[in-house]
Fold:
Amino acid sequence: MKEDNRKDHPAPELSPGVVALINNGMDFLDKAIKEFKTAPKFSVVSFWTAVEIMLKVPLAQEHWTLVCSGRNFRLKDYVSGEFQSITFKESCEKLRDVLEKPVPQTTLDAFNIVRKHRNRVVHFYHDAYTQEEIDRLLSEQANAWFALNRLMRDDWKDLFEGALGNLLARDETRLLTQNNFYAAEKFNQIKEDIKTYKSTGHCISKCHVCGQEAVIQEQVAEHDNQRLFSFHCLVCTMLGVSMLQFNCPRCDAPALLLSDDGETSFECSHCGYSETRYRMLDTSSYRIDERALSPLPAGCCECDGYNTVCEYGDGYLCTTCLTYFDALEQCGHCNYYSSEVSEFSAYGGCDFCEGHRDAWDDD
Ligand SMILES: [Zn+2]
Ligand SMILES: [Zn+2]
Ligand SMILES: [Zn+2]
Ligand SMILES: [Zn+2]
Structure:
C-alpha cells in the first residue's frame, strides 16, 4: 500500500454514484475515439453522451436529487437507475444557479456545435461522410474535448477540493489518450496554418495543455516601451493568454503582467513598487474636473469586468484580462461605456444593466 501523506488535507470522498457517473462518462469518451475510425456517425453520439454525463458530475456530488428531473425523488430509484435524468439545458442552468459555476460561453459554444451535429445524426438518416465532413467532425469534437477538459481541471477544481483531482489523476492515462488523439488529429489539420505563421515571422511555441508546437505569439498593441502580446494555441483553441511586457515605472526593471493570474495590481519584484493595474496603465489625460465627461473607467465584455477598462495609447485596455479594444461603445439605456454594446441597447440594455423593463420577459 502507498504511504498516506494526505492526512493534512483529507479530501471529501466522492460518492459511489459520482464515481459511477465519471466512469460511465469516461467509457463513452473512449468509445467515441474507437468509433471515430469505423463509425463516425456513432462517434458523435457517444461523445455527446459523455459531455451530458460529465456535466452532471458536480451536481450529483452536491446532492443526488440535483440530477433528477420531475418530483418525488426516491433514493432507491436513483441507486437502481430508475429515474428521469435532467437534460443538458437543465444541467447548465443548475450549474449556474445552484452551484454558481456557470459553464463559460466559449465552452457552451463548442458544446453546442457538437450537440446540433448529434441531433442531426440522430433525427436524420446520415450514413456516409465525405473526408471533408470527417475532418470537420474531428475538429468540432476536438474543440469540445479541450473545453470539457478545461472545465473539469480548472473551473471545477474547487468544487471537489482534491477528490475530483485524485480521481482524474487515477484516470490520467485515459485523459491523456483523449488529449493525444484530439491534439494529433487537430495538429494535422492546422499544419499548413502553422507554416504560414512561421513564414511571416511569428514566434511559435509549445502548448502546455495539448503538448503541440502550436502556440502563436502575436503583438496586439504597443505604447511607449510597453508591448502587449497574445498567445493562443491553434490546437486547443480555447486557451488564449495575454501578456504585457513593460518596465517598472519606478526602477525600470523589466516586468510582466499576465491575463489569467487573477491579479488586479502589480508589485515589482525588484524594488517593491506597488500600484493597481488600472492606475499604472491608464494613459487618459482627463483632469479631475473633466472626469464626469470621460467614458472611463469602462466595462469589459470579455471578462465581465466592471470599471476595468482604461485608456491605453490610441485604444483601450482591460486591466484584468488584458484584452485590447480599438473603441468603446455606449449603452443607449444606462449610458455606461463598455467594449461591446448591442445595436438595440436603448431597449435591451448592455452587459452591465437590465435594459428597459418591457424587454425583460422575452423567453
Ligand atoms: Zn494547445
Ligand atoms: Zn521596480
Ligand atoms: Zn476584461
Ligand atoms: Zn447599459
In short: The two ends are 56 Å apart (CA to CA).
